[in-house]
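TL;DR need structure tokens for one chain.
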Amino acid sequence: MRRARPPETALVFRARPRFAGLLLWGAVFVGGWGPAGAAESCRNAELVRVHDGDTVSLRCDTGLVKLRFADIDAPEYRQPGGRQAREALVALLDGCRLVVETRATDRYGRRIGDILVGDEKVSLRLVSQGWAWCGPRSARTCRSRQDAARDARRGLWQDAAPVPPWRWREQHPYRP
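>> reply
TL;DR here they are.
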């Protein structure tokens, strides 16, 4: 036969699982689920390398960070317009105070996010200059800047029919 616990002990044991559950959900809500979901920011990043038009390496307080811009897609380096997109990104970042905001990590281990110069997102500047396409889930601001760049025939839009990077990657699979 099972013995009943004294009332004060029973209350403590019943409350612990609820409290633990609240702590777990609080940690997930506030900090994300581990490194892949955690948002981070770096207030004074140093540019280390520009890989292509939408990927850079930066030195932050936490160490070296490889960042892929969220919500845009720039030409691959070997793609027509790729070198110019990279040069445009170098010009936007070189010598500036960089603020980095990340929101996730992709399957290649790159942080996904954006860089702010002043109060403007660098990714939106690239789109405005015509060196990147908006992603499928981009905000209306990005789409309107892309339309303006296309109408003004800036950057990649100087070509009558520029090939988006996702189509170019389909036609030119990566071979290590």
